[in-house]
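hiii so um. not sure if this is the right channel but i have a protein structure encoded as tokens and i wanna go backwards to a sequence. like what aa goes where. can anyone help
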């Protein structure tokens, strides 16, 4: 799909790239004609229930532990408005715009399946908010990952009603009614079931999963690059990455990581310089030799998580739902366990990849293990400290990543007077994974910065063309070896190169696409 194309939203599953393009880059959306037809058809069934005397959860009853109360028809509009206002109870820092936009898009997709009974006019407001760049202010705390991401989605639903607080396209925080009026968006008065349908989904945690998967695909290629540069800088061997050795343990992620490292190290004069028989080392340390096994396992974890995310993107999550045969049934599909588990699993993989990267960095700074490099890569060790404290920063992040790897999904706090007596904590798992992805970005940046300096110190021996290209792009922002300088801006410069994909692009300019 080209950048100027509109993403059409219908009953069909959303593509990963479409979620990223709308959430992160502001791509416009459009509800398809089939979506409008499906919504209109299911809405008819909800209106039948709303006009009848038979109790129907969310249509003519209260919610959660209050579901036993039958609501008089005259109060059913107020029921929906009260639900949204009371559930918009988030607290803490504002979550990132891309997370809220992902959540809005995914909720719009569920509405478009026609299984929620929401009117097309209500879905149109959500469509208009996305296209106008109006983002409801959503807070860090409020979701238990069951009965949907209730509080976060309620803040979105509040905006659809023209209430609450939003951030506009220019980034200004404003009252929702003021922003909607400026952009010509008419808020709606929610009808039967609509408040519940707008908040009863796993869209927040799923949005964070899709965003993390996108970032990790780039970061794991970056991890192969930083590992290859460290192997080169530490005068390690690439023989352990041989395809025949990797085939003895046929994990696909491992094979891909090893293939990347072989490609990245091809043609290295540094590697060739110690193949003359003078090297007495039999084998390298685990952090070098086992790099494909760890990065590969992380790749396979990402692949599993992507399968789960793909299934969720094909889902219609609400309670109750309108089935194709017209039945309106309660269900438990809002439980976030499938998403929560893989969010936690990814945080474990992130922590381990980062931990191995930090160990390689430490080896390059230790004269006892760096095979001829100066202590801490300093210009004048003792007067200069080199990258000593850069490794401290890296170690502090790795320690935090280990804490973030503690799973959220094993916890459960009963809520709603024990009606909702088991919850997934998937939103919390998503929040900590986002912090973990940022941490891995920074850990890899420090390894790259350190490895580039070590490679420069191996002169006159030249690095491989691919690793040399990465060192070259780093040198466009950060000077080479020398006396001590203000190091924090240099680390941040390489963090940006990792985050925006410049490191991977530099390597791939030589190698072609990495796996």
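sure thing!! here u go:
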């Amino acid at each position: 799909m080209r950048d100027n194309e509109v993403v059409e939203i219908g009953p069909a599953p959303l593509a990963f790239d479409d979620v990223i393009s709308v959430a992160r880059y502001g791509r416009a959306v459009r509800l398809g004609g089939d979506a409008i037809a499906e919504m209109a058809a299911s809405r008819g069934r909800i209106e039948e229930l709303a006009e009848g005397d038979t109790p129907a959860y969310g249509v003519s009853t209260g919610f959660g532990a209050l579901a036993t109360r039958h609501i008089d028809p005259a109060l059913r509009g107020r029921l929906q408005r009260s639900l949204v206002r009371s559930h918009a109870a988030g607290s803490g820092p504002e979550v990132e715009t891309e997370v809220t936009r992902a959540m809005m898009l995914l909720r719009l997709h569920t509405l478009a399946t026609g299984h929620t009974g929401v009117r097309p006019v209500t879905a149109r407001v959500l469509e208009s908010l996305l296209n106008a760049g109006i983002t409801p202010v959503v807070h860090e705390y409020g979701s238990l990952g069951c009965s949907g991401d209730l509080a976060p989605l309620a803040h979105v639903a509040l905006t659809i009603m023209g209430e609450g607080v939003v951030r506009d396209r220019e980034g200004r925080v404003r009252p929702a009614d003021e922003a909607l009026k400026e952009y010509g968006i008419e808020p709606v008065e929610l009808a039967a079931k609509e408040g519940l349908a707008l908040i009863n989904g796993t869209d927040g945690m799923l949005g964070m999963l899709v965003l993390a998967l996108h970032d990790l695909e780039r970061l794991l290629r970056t991890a192969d690059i930083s590992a290859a540069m460290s192997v080169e800088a530490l005068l390690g061997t690439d023989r352990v990455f041989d395809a025949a050795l990797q085939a003895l343990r046929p994990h696909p992620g491992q094979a891909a990581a090893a293939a990347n490292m072989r490609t990245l190290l091809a043609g290295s004069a540094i590697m060739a310089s110690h193949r003359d028989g003078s090297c007495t080392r039999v084998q390298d340390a685990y952090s070098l030799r086992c790099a494909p096994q760890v990065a590969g396992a992380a790749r396979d974890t990402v692949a599993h998580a992507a399968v789960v995310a793909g299934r969720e993107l094909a889902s219609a999550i609400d309670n109750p739902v309108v089935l194709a045969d017209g039945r309106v049934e309660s269900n438990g599909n809002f439980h976030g366990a499938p998403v929560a588990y893989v969010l936690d699993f990814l945080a474990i993989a992130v922590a381990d990849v980062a931990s191995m990267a930090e160990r390689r960095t430490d080896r390059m700074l230790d004269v006892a293990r760096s095979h001829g490099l100066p202590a801490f890569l300093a210009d004048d060790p003792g007067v200069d400290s080199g990258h000593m404290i850069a490794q401290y920063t890296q170690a502090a992040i790795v320690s935090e990543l280990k804490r973030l790897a503690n799973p959220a999904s094993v916890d459960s706090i009963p809520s709603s007077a024990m009606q909702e007596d088991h919850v997934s904590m998937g939103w919390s798992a998503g929040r900590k994974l986002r912090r973990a992805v940022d941490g891995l970005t920074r850990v890899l940046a420090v390894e790259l910065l350190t490895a580039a300096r070590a490679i420069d110190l191996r002169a006159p021996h030249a690095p491989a063309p691919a690793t040399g290209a990465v060192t070259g792009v780093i040198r466009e922002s950060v000077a080479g070896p020398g006396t001590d300088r203000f190091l924090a801006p240099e680390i941040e410069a390489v963090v940006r190169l990792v985050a925006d994909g410049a490191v991977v692009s530099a390597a791939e300019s030589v190698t072609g696409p990495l796996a």
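oh and Residues 208-317+346-511 form a domain with the Fumarase C; Chain A, domain 2 fold (CATH 1.20.200.10).
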